[in-house]
Amino acid sequence: MTKLSRSDLSEFVNVADLPMVQQVVSVSFEGDDPVAWRDHAGPVPDSERRTMTCALALISEFVDLIDGPGAYERGLLTALGNALDT
Fold first, then answer.
1. pLDDT for 22-41, tens place per residue?
2. What is the pTM of this model?
């Protein structure tokens, strides 16, 4: 995956969606179910989906920068595997 640039993001991100995306990410980091939380706010517009995708890409780049290449993918696969085991 290539790194995202500001010009790439500006093509996909609607600034009006950032507060909702920030809250969904916060809910997730707090250990709550972000999908259930977001469902209470009504339908998800396409622009919010694109904004969330960009946010997750940036988060994965940050985790890989801090914890080493592939760290985000390993963590995600572990979490998914644990979810399937329960």
1. 999 999 889 899 999 999 99
2. 0.72
Q: In 3-state terms, what secondary structure has residue 5?
A: coil
Beta carbons of 51 and 12 less than 8 angstroms apart: yes
Q: What is the DSSP string of 41-74?
A: T-PPPHHHHHHHHHHHHHHHHHHHHHH-TTHHHH
- Distances 86 to 34, 40, 64, 69, 79 between C-alpha atoms, Å: 19, 25, 27, 28, 11
Residues 6+ apart with CB under 8 A from 34: 24, 25, 27, 28
| Residue 13 neighbours by CB under 8 Å, 6+ apart | 50, 51, 54
Two tokens, residue 20: 């909702």
